[in-house]
Specification:
Blueprint: E1 19-24, H1 42-47, H2 51-62, E2 66-68, H3 71-84, E3 92-99, E4 110-111, H4 122-125, E5 132-136, E6 145-149, E7 154-162, H5 170-181, E8 187-188, E9 201-202, H6 203-216, H7 221-230, H8 239-254, H9 256-264, E10 269-270
Parallel strand pairs: 4-5
Antiparallel strand pairs: 1-3, 2-6, 3-7, 5-6, 7-10, 8-9
Length: about 270
C-alpha cells in the first residue's frame, strides 16, 4: 500500500488549512484534563498493582498521540470501536478539527506507526519542535493520510452526535420493523463446526443480522464487515430503535452531505 503523491495534505504550506475528523464517545474531546484512571474501580486498581502502577499507566495513556483523519477514517473508526470495544450502545460524536496555523508538521509521511489497538506515543512520531506527523493509515480509510498530534496542535473543534436524529430511511425502517415483529422469538440453534461453543440465537436476532448484512452489502467493501458487526441485532432489542439506528449509521456513509451540513451549523469550540 502506498500514498497518492498528489494528495493535497502533503503540501506543507497549506497543510493547516484542511479540516480533519475524529469520532469519540467523549462529549468534550479532546478533554482538557484527561484522567484515564477516573473510571477505574477500586477492584481494578488493586488488580493493576496499586496506586503507583495505576498512576504510571495513566501517565502512559496521557502520553499517547491523538489521531485525526479523513471523514471516511473517522466513520471507519467508529464502526471498528462498536465492533471491537463493546461500544454497541454508546453515543458517538463526530468532530471536525481545525489545526492552529502555526503548527509545525513533520517532513514527509510515515508508514502507519500505531500498534494493533491503534496507539502510538506522541514523542515517538513528533520529536521536539514538531507538532504533527502525517502517516499512511493502514486500518481506517486504508491508503489515506491521517495525523498523529498532541492536543496543543488543535485550534478548535465542531461536534455533532451521530447518527443524526431523523435521518433514517423511513421506508426501510418500516419494512424492517414489520419483518422483525413478524417473526417469533423462537431459539435457533447455532450450526457449523464451532456450534457447540456458540450461544443459540432467536429467529428475530438472526433476521436482524440478515437485514444488517443486506445494507452492508451496499457499502464499500472495506466497510462491510465492520458495518455488519455494528448493526448486529441484540437479543431483546426494540426493533424500531434498532432499525432507526442502523439506517442512521448507513446514512453516515451513503449520504455524508447531511452530516457535513449539520457540522457547518455548529459553533467552533476553542481547545
Amino acid at each position: 500500500m502506498t500514498l497518492d503523491s498528489g494528495d493535497p495534505a502533503l503540501d506543507d504550506d497549506g497543510f493547516a488549512q484542511f479540516s480533519w475528523y475524529h469520532t469519540s464517545t467523549q462529549p468534550d474531546w479532546p478533554t482538557r484534563h484527561f484522567d484515564p484512571a477516573a473510571v477505574l474501580t477500586p477492584e481494578t486498581r488493586r488488580r493493576m498493582g496499586g496506586e503507583q502502577r495505576v498512576s504510571a499507566w495513566a501517565a502512559r495513556q496521557r502520553a499517547k498521540a491523538l489521531h485525526v483523519g479523513t471523514y471516511e477514517a473517522a466513520v471507519h473508526n467508529m464502526l471498528r470501536r462498536i465492533r471491537d470495544q463493546a461500544n454497541q450502545r454508546s453515543q458517538f460524536y463526530l468532530y471536525r478539527v481545525r489545526l492552529k496555523p502555526s503548527v509545525v508538521v513533520r517532513e514527509g509521511w510515515l508508514v502507519d506507526p500505531s500498534n494493533f489497538v491503534g496507539d502510538v506515543g506522541l514523542d515517538e512520531v513528533c520529536p521536539p519542535g514538531v507538532d504533527v506527523a502525517r502517516y499512511l493509515n493502514f486500518h481506517e480509510d486504508p491508503g489515506g493520510l491521517s495525523l498523529a498530534l498532541g492536543r496543543d496542535a488543535i485550534a478548535s473543534v465542531q461536534r455533532i452526535a451521530v447518527p443524526l436524529p431523523d435521518t433514517w430511511d423511513g421506508g426501510w425502517v418500516r419494512d424492517a420493523v414489520a419483518a422483525l415483529e413478524g417473526v417469533s422469538g423462537t431459539v435457533v440453534p447455532a450450526t457449523g463446526k464451532l456450534a457447540r461453543f456458540m450461544r443459540p440465537s432467536s429467529s428475530r436476532a438472526v433476521l436482524g443480522r440478515e437485514l444488517g448484512a443486506f445494507l452492508a452489502g451496499r457499502l464499500p467493501v472495506n466497510l462491510q464487515d465492520q458495518f455488519a458487526s455494528a448493526a448486529a441485532f441484540a437479543e431483546g432489542e426494540d426493533p424500531e430503535q434498532w432499525a432507526r439506528r442502523t439506517s442512521g449509521l448507513f446514512d453516515l456513509i451513503d449520504d455524508p452531505t447531511r452530516v457535513l451540513a449539520a457540522l457547518d451549523q455548529q459553533d467552533p469550540r476553542e481547545v
